[in-house]
Design brief:
11 strands; 19% strand; alpha/beta; two-stranded parallel ribbon; TIM Barrel; 10 helices; 8-stranded parallel β-barrel
Length: 338
């Protein structure tokens, strides 16, 4: 009796197992009587289908079009461009003010003639300096110090907007840079930089500061040699840095002229800014050996991220040639002709 019951239970289990196998075969389309198909037909190449296009789920679509900088302003520093023109390029610049030939080259001819001569000068450097690109630049003294009082009380006059717009148009069309130079006088760096911020929004426009004419108290520009301190230069750096991040434009260059130590006070306290390259321009004139020694002196200053040299067509004795300039150590990042 017990044996018969056990045989019956075994038969039922076996039947159930067979039924499950048959059901699985039906669900998967398996045909036990068919021969297994090869993975690839004989003597045929495997057919590779391209993956189907992937459409983002609707819930993710807003994330793909969101203005991250607008929604998350703290990310702006990572979204701003970080590639500076220096040290991968060398800049050759013509300096001055169109209203005065005594101030430099820009006052000696019309704007197109000046631009043509500048392009030729830059090409001569480009043929000599190896793999480094050369970029021509106009160096426009925008805020001009005066020896007599002005209506604004600052001993400053300014280039009018129409003239600046002409230089903006020319430099943009010709692939040149434009430096706006501020002589400060009795004003402040922050106040003068504020006036040129609309122009500095253009990617090709950069800034220069001239401590020689920055005076305080009752001093008159030109009667004494002025100075800027680390805080003054830091104000300009901070304003340029903020502009780069807000406008998402390429990093800016900040040139500071110097030919005696007292022109930059407390220079060791100057801090670097990631999107502002600080250039110290050796701004003195004289014979080549004196210019070379002075250049090397200021090029080694810890606050000088890059070095520049100015050549005076009217005041330098035995004007340095392009080859002479390129032999300087370190090689000038910017060469300014006045």
């Amino acid at each position: 009796m017990l044996a018969a019951s056990a045989d019956r239970r075994f038969s039922l289990l076996l039947a159930g197992a067979l039924a499950g196998i048959v059901a699985l075969g039906v669900a998967t389309g398996y045909d036990a009587s068919a021969s297994p198909a090869p993975l690839h037909p004989p003597n045929a190449r495997a057919l590779v289908l391209p993956p189907p296009p992937i459409d983002p789920p609707r819930l993710l679509e807003p994330l793909l079009t969101i203005d991250l900088a607008g929604r998350f302003p703290e990310m702006a520093v990572t979204l701003a461009p970080t590639r500076s023109l220096l040290p991968d390029s060398q800049i050759v610049s013509y300096y001055g003010n169109p209203a005065s030939a005594a101030m430099g080259i820009l006052g000696t001819a019309d704007i197109e003639t000046i631009a043509d001569a500048l392009a030729e000068q830059a090409a001569r450097y480009d043929r000599l300096n190896g793999d480094i690109d050369v970029i021509p630049a106009i160096h426009l003294v925008y805020a001009v110090a005066q020896a007599q009082p002005t209506d604004n009380g600052l001993y400053l006059t300014y280039v009018n907007d129409a003239t600046v717009q002409r230089y903006l148009k020319l430099t943009e069309e010709r692939g040149m840079l434009l430096f706006l130079d501020l002589q400060i006088a009795r004003s402040t760096v922050a106040a003068e930089v504020e006036k040129v911020l609309p122009y500095l929004r253009h990617p090709q426009v950069h800034l220069a500061l001239d401590p020689e004419f920055a005076v305080s108290g009752r001093a008159v520009p030109g009667a004494v040699i002025g100075s800027l301190n680390a805080d003054d230069i830091g104000d300009a750096q901070a304003m340029l840095q903020a502009l780069v991040l807000e406008e998402r434009i390429p990093p800016k260059l900040l040139m500071v002229h110097q030919f005696i130590d007292d022109m930059v006070v407390g220079g060791d306290a100057i801090q670097p800014y990631p999107d502002v390259a600080l250039i110290i321009d050796m701004d003195g004139f004289g014979p080549p050996d004196v210019k070379r020694a002075t250049y090397e002196r200021y090029a080694e200053r810890p606050y000088a991220a890059h070095a520049a040299i100015k050549l005076f067509l009217q005041h330098d004795t035995d004007l340095m040639s392009e080859r002479d300039v390129l032999r300087l150590e370190p090689t000038p990042a910017i060469v300014v002709y006045q």
